[in-house]
Design a protein that fits this description.
By secondary structure, the protein is an alpha+beta fold. About 25% of the residues lie in helices and about 35% in strands. The protein has six helices and 13 strands. Strands 1, 2, 3, 4, 5, 6, 7, 8, 9, 10, 11, 12 and 13 form a 13-stranded mixed sheet that branches.
Length: about 240
Amino acid sequence: MTALRREGEWPGRVILRWLFMRGELRPWDDDADAAVLRVGYATDGFVDQCIRTALTAAPIVRSPVVSDDDAGRWETRGFRPELELMVMESSLATTSDVDPDPLIHRGGIDGLRDVDNAAFEKPWRVSQLGLEDAMAATPFADTLAITREGEITAFAIVGADRHGVAYLQRIATAPQWRGQGFGSHLIEAAHSWAVAKGCERLLLNVRPDAKNVIDLYLAHHFEPHDLSLRVFRRDNLED
């Protein structure tokens, strides 16, 4: 295979192309000490070359979040399971007793990264590009944010496909504002947003060891789904 055509420079978003095939890597978080690599439909040779390119950019390369059906592409190339996520689902026919916070507003992703970085520890926080990808993951997407004292204190990213399924892609509350019920308000706002889009189901993923968060979702009529998701990892020291 000839050299890949490369667009962009690390630690920004880098697009890799050859013929009809496309790969993409970006920093996992703002420290840029790990990359996440996405590769669409491609030959084995193209996938291998994308992995080699990613391993020269960052000491750690992670897969995107994948189901068991897609795990083989990574496991056969020396990646090992690192992170596990459980999927939960809510029927949008279910009503709630919680009214969304009246100060929730829609907007872009400006100002969300600081909240996300404060709310999560590595490796669960994402980069600004990761937030952009969450917005771009579905044909329809929006951000919902709660502000207090002129600052964003909590936010959610919601999306919907064209088949009646909505997704709570990301939700976070700044640590100093926890305990105010902002998570519940955002979940209900996401519910209302999805209903307005004509969706019938709302899906999310969550760490299986995050008991308090899971209990919150259960209280909002989410139920565990049979599907589980994982992130795979490979270190360049393994080469």
